[in-house]
C-alpha cells in the first residue's frame, strides 16, 4: 500500500495485486531502483507493474512494457495519481503523462522496450519529480510538453441517478448513435431523384494516403478486427462493407484480432487496410494485432470510443464513435456496440462513394435509414418495464440459455450472448435459428429468439422453429416486429420492436437483449439479497444471544431466534418450490434446507455431526448455516457493473412454404391434444395423402396401450384399453371391451409403428388405424377411424393418394410381361389400394385382365 496519501493508486477491474519478491542478493551494493529494474528484466511479454516497499515507503515504482497495457500518471498540485485507464485520473486531475512501453531505449537493442517511473512524495512534483528510465537503465528525459490534458471530465463518468452504470449507458445509447452520425456527412436533397452526398471525414479520420490507395486500387483486402463485443461489431461492419463494395476488387473480412495476429499475419501486408474496432482503445489483443500489421506495411484506421487511448497512437486515422468522450464505466460494453455498427456503416458508404460501387442516391437512402436509429432505439427503451417483467418471469426458469438469430440478426444473437454471459455468469450458446432445432434441445433451455426485422419468407420458418423449441419444453422469449402476433401463442414472452431494416434491426434486437440481460442479472442478484438480508438478521440475533451468554442449546430454542429463522424458512421454501435459486449449487440449497431444521431444534443435534463433515471452526449448525449463507450470496451475487473474472436432434428441413398440418385427420388429432411430434416422421405424409381420399370420418375409437417392454415393444403382457369413442363407434362393440390383451392387427401396428388401412374384421367397414407415440419409446395410443373413401376421385388424384405404391404395382405388372396402363387402378377400391400388399393388388389386376 502507498506510504503516504499523496500517492493514490486507482485500480480498475483488470488489476491484479501480487507480491513481488526481489532476491536479497540483488540489493548487494544497489539501491531499490536498480534491484527493481533487474527484477523486471526477468519478466516476459507485455505487462504493467506497480510496486511499493517498506525499504522506501515514500516511493511508488511503476513499470510498463509492450503494447498490451497502459499506465497513466496524473499530475496534480499536491500528488501523483496513477491508473490503467484515463478515467481513473480525472476526478483528481486533468493533466497526465502516459508511459510508453513500446519505444526502445536509444542506448539498447531495438527489441528491448519498457519504461520505469519512480514517483516520490517528497519530490517537488510535476515532471521534475518523476524519475524515469528505460529497462536498460538509460534515463528518460521528461519535459513539460510531455504533460497532456485529458479530454474527458468527471461528468463523462458520472453515474447520475441510475442504479448501475450499465443501465445509464444503455439509456444513453440513442444519444451516442446520434452523436456518431452528427457532422459526418451532408445530403443535398434539391432534387429527390438526384440526391448528392457530401462526406465530412477529414484526413484525421481517413488519411489522404489511405484514400488515394483505395481509389488507385492498391488496397486489395480490408480486415475489420476486434475482441469480444468489438469483434461482433466487426462482423456486422464487414458484412456492410462487403455488401456496399460489391463490384470492387476488395475482399472484406471480419477477424478476431488475436486470430489475425496468431494465424494470418503475412510478412507483407502492403495491400491491406486494418480497421480495428475497440471501445476503450486499450484492448491488448487488438492493439498488438494492429502494431504487428502496421509493422508489415498495412494501413490502419480505428473505430474507437475514447480519445487519447492507446489505439489512436497506433493507427493512421481514427473514426470516433459519439464524440470520443462517451466513456463506458460498466465493464460490459453496450452503447459503444451500437455506435460502432453505425460508424462502420458510414465508413463503408464513404468507401462505396470513393470506389463508385454505389450511387449517391443509394448512399443517401442508406444514411437516411441510419438516421432513424435514435428514435427507434428510444421506442425500445420505452419498453423497459415490459422487458423487465419478461426477464423476471423467465430468466430463472431454465439452467441452460441460448440466443438465436438468422441472417443479420445472428450478429445480435452473438452480442447478446456476450452480455448475458458477462452479466449473469453463465456459459451461453449462440446459433442460427434454423440450426438450433438440430442441437441441444434435449437440454430444454431458455431460448431468446431475435426475430425483429426479418423478411416474411424467413419469419414463417422462425415461427415454425419457435414452435419446435416449445415442443421440446424450452422457455422461449421472442423479439419480434410490432404487429407480429403469430408468436403470441407459442412463446413465453414476446417483446415487440419497431419495424426496421438492417442494420437497424440488429441494433434494436441487441438493445432489447441488453435490457433483458440487465434485468435478468438484477433478478438473480435479488435472490442474493434475500440471503444477504437474512444473514444480517441471523447475525444480529446471535449477537444478542452472545450478550446474554446463551449456550448452544439455549440458542436453538430462543423464541426470537426461532422467529427470525422461521420467517426466512417460509420465504425460502416458497421461493424454492416456485423454482427460484436455479443458479445455485444443489448441495448449498439442500444444506440450507437441512440446517434450517437443525438450528431451531427440529432435528436432534447429535445427528448434525453425522450429516455434515464439519470443518475446523464450525462448532454448531448455526455457524455452518452462516457460512453456507455466505456461499449462497457468493453464487448469486451479480454486481452488474463489474465482472468477477476478468441433444435431442429434430430432423426438420427448412422450408419457406410449409403450412400448419391441416385436414380431417390432423384436425381430429389436434382436438385430442396429440401434436405432430406424437406422429412418426414417415406417417405424417402418409396421413396427408390418405386425407385426400376420404369422403367422411364417421367415428373413431381411441385406445391406450400399456405394459410395453423397456424398449417400447409389445410383449405377451401388453394390454389395450379404450379411452374414448365418438360417432358410429359408440354403437359398435369392440373385442377390447371383453379382453384387454393386445393381439392381432393392433399388436402388429404397435410393433411396427405403421399406419393401417383396411376393413374391420367383424363388419367389413373401411378403417384407418394411426399409431401415436408416447413421451418415451414406443406407441402409447392407437386412433381407429371409421371412414368412407371417395371412390369418385379422378385417376390422377388416385395415383397421387397411393404415392410410391403406384410404382411398385406397375413394376409387378411389368414383371408379368403385361403392358401397364394407369386405367388398371380405376376399379380398385381405396381400402385395397392403401391397405393390401402390392403383390395382392398386382395379382387382382392380372386376374381382372385375364377375364377381359
Question: Can you characterise this structure?
Answer:
This protein is an alpha/beta fold. Helix content is 38%, strand content 17%. It is built from 27 helices and 26 strands. The strands form six sheets. The protein has a five-stranded mixed β-sheet, with no helix packed on it. A five-stranded parallel β-sheet has the order 13-12-14-15-16, with helices on both faces. α3 (173-181) packs antiparallel against α10.
Task: Provide a concise account of the structure shown.
The chain is an alpha/beta fold and 852 residues long. The protein is built from 27 helices and 26 strands.
Topology:
Elements: E1 7-10, H1 32-40, E2 47-51, E3 59-65, E4 72-75, E5 80-83, E6 95-98, E7 115-120, E8 130-134, E9 148-149, H2 165-171, H3 173-181, E10 185-188, E11 196-199, H4 208-215, E12 221-226, H5 229-244, E13 251-256, H6 257-263, E14 272-278, H7 284-295, E15 299-304, E16 317-320, H8 335-355, H9 360-371, H10 373-381, H11 384-394, E17 401-405, H12 409-424, E18 429-431, H13 433-436, E19 446-450, H14 456-471, E20 475-481, E21 493-497, H15 504-547, H16 552-556, H17 559-577, H18 586-598, H19 605-611, H20 621-636, H21 664-671, H22 683-692, E22 694-706, E23 719-727, H23 744-752, E24 756-759, E25 766-773, E26 779-789, H24 795-802, H25 805-815, H26 830-835, H27 838-851
Parallel strand pairs: 1-5, 12-13, 12-14, 14-15, 15-16, 17-18, 17-19, 19-20, 20-21
Antiparallel strand pairs: 2-3, 3-7, 4-5, 4-6, 6-9, 7-8, 10-11, 22-23, 22-26, 24-25, 25-26
Helix pairs in contact: 3-8, 3-10, 5-8, 5-12, 6-7, 8-9, 10-15, 11-15, 12-15, 15-17, 15-20, 18-20, 25-27
